[in-house]
Amino acid sequence: MTAMATAVPGSARVLRLEIKRSVVPWVLPLLAALVWFDTIRTASGWPPVWTLRASAISDHMLNDFNALGAGLAAWVGSREGRRKTSDLVAATPRAAWARHAVALGATECWLLLAFLVGVAALYVQTALQATWGGPPLWPVFVGAADVIVVTVIGFTCGTLFPGRFTAPLVAVAVVVLGFAGFHAAFNVTATSSKYALLAPGTSPPKVDAGVFYHVLPDVPIAQVMFMGGITVALLGVLSLAPALRKLASNGWSVRGTLAAGDGWWLRVIAVVLLAAGVAASWTAYSLAGTAELTATGWEIPALHDAASDKPVPFVPDCTSGPGGFQVCINPAFSGYLSDVTAALDPVAAEIAGLPGAPVRAEQVASVGTGLSGYEPSYIAGNPPVFEYNGEQVGDLFGGFMGIPAGAGAFWRAAFQQGLLDSFLAEPPHAAAAVWTGPAPLGAAQQAVEDALMIAAGSQPPQGAGQGGQSGGPSQAQITAAASRFAALSPSARHAWLAAHLPALRVGQITLAQLP
Question: Which of 8, 63, 67, 125 is deepest in the core (most CB within 10 A)?
C-alpha cells in the first residue's frame, strides 16, 4: 500500500512534466487556424440550426485533428526508439507501460483540450445566432472518441515501429482512411453495406435535421462503441509490447521469458483489454449491419428508443403580409420569416378566394415517410394550407441553406413558383400511396403561372413547363400568352380563373384559349 501511495503522486509529477514538454502546443496555432478557416467559417455560412452546425465537427474539424493528432502521437510514441534510448530507460525503476501511459496521456490531454476548445468556439458562435434549440452532445462524444482513438493508433504505431518516417506515414494513412470512410458513408443506402455508418465523417444533414424530429442516437452510440473498442484493444497491445519484444529477443521461447513473477498480472490485464476491445468493436460492427433507414434517419433496432421517434414540440412563428396571407415557420428559422412572407404574400393575393387557394403557409419537415428524397411542397387540408420545407420549394433546392434574403429575386420567385405549381396542378388522387409532388405543368398552366408571377412583380423562371418539347408549344409562345394574360386587370384575371380553373388544372385549356 505504501508503494502504491507513493507511486500515484510520482506518476502525477511525471504526467505534469510530459504535459509541460509535449510537442502538441507547438502546433496548436496551426491547428487553431485550420479549425477557424475550415470548420467555423464553413459552419457560419449555414443557417444557425444546432444539428446542422454541429455536423461541421465530424465533417471538417475531425479531418484537421486526425492528421495532426495521429502524426504527433506517432512522433511521441517513437521517441525512445528514434533516439536509441530504449536500453537506457529499461534500467529505470519505472515500467515501460507506465512511461507509455504517461506520454500517451499527456498527448491525449492536449489534443482533447484543443478539440473541446474548438467545439466551444463553434457552439458559442451558434448560440449567439440560433433562435431555437440547444447544443447537441452526441457529435461531441463521437468527436472526442475519434480524437482519442486516432491518438492511440498513432502512438501505438510509433511505439511498435519507431522511426523518422513513422509519424508522416501514419498521418497520411489516417487522412486516406478518413476520406475512404467519408466516401463509403456518403454512399451508403438502405440496400448497400451499412458498416460504413461507423465512419464519423458524413455529408451535412438536411437543413432542418433535428428540428421537426429528434436526431436518432443509434448510429453515434455504435460509433462510440466501435472506436472505444479499438482504443481499449490498442491499449492492451501497448501493454503487451515490452513482453513481445522480450519474447522476440529470446527467439520466441516462452521459457524464461514470461515467468510468473515477471509482471504476469500486467500481461493478464493486457490480454483482457485486448479481448474486451475486440469484442466491443465487433459488437458495434455487427449492430451497424442491422441498421434500417427510416423517415427520421438510421435506426439500429438493438439500440433504438421509441421515444426518439416522437416529433419535437414547438410553437411556430407566424406573421401576415400586407395582403393578409399568413406565413408560419419553425422558430429555428425565424430569420427567414419576413422573407418568406414577402415572397408568398403578393402571389397569394392574386389567387385569394379561388377554389383550392391556400389561406396560409406552414413549414413542414423536409423528409417524408416515403423516403423518396425531399418531401415536396404542396397544398393540402381544409381549409387549404400551402406546406413547404427548407430543402425544396419550386425549382429551388436548399432554400434555407443560405443567408436570409441573400438569394434575391430568384429565391423569392422559387417560393412563388412552388405555391403556384401546387395550386394550378391537378390535385393528388386519394389512391396514391405516396405523393411525390404536383405533376409538371402544361403549356397553358405554365403561362398562367408566369402571368401571375409577373403580376406579383417577379420574373418567372424560364423553361419550367412544356416549352421546347417535341410537338408542344414553344417557350416563345408560352411567354407571349403569359404576357397577354398578365396584361388583364386583376379583376378580369380573377374572374377568368374562377370560371376556368377546374378545366385548367386537368389540362383542357390551350394557350389559344387564354384571354
Answer: 67
